[in-house]
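Hey, weird one. I pasted the Cell division protein FtsL sequence into the form twice and got a warning about non-standard characters only the second time. First submission, copied straight from the form history:
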Amino acid sequence: MAQPAHQFTQREQVRRQKHVTSDSRAIALPRRRITKGEKVLWTAAVIAIFVFAIVIISRQAQIYTASVSATHMQNTIDTVQKNNDELNEQVQKLKQPDRILEFAKKHGLNLNINNVKMVNK
């Protein structure tokens, strides 16, 4: 008879443990279900964030392209300006009166002061 009493006490202990654990579960909040409307809202929010991210990235790419184009254009302008300055310097050297007189003498021309007329710009 010792065995049935022993089995009874083991069963009672297992039942009490289940009762204690079921009480601790009762204290925990029940799991909330997600409704279809919430799913739609979350899906729409995720899609909106994704679209905004794509728009921002595309705008940044356009800004970068415009910046590179502006930098290239500025470099071209600087090169042309430098070339123009060099050509203006060369024009100033070629316009010197001493050079013109030397060129005229070299080609057999004489300076007659009576035939010289002053031209102003």
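That's the output from the first submission. The warning seems to come from a hidden character in my clipboard, not from the data itself. DSSP finds three helices and no strands in the chain.
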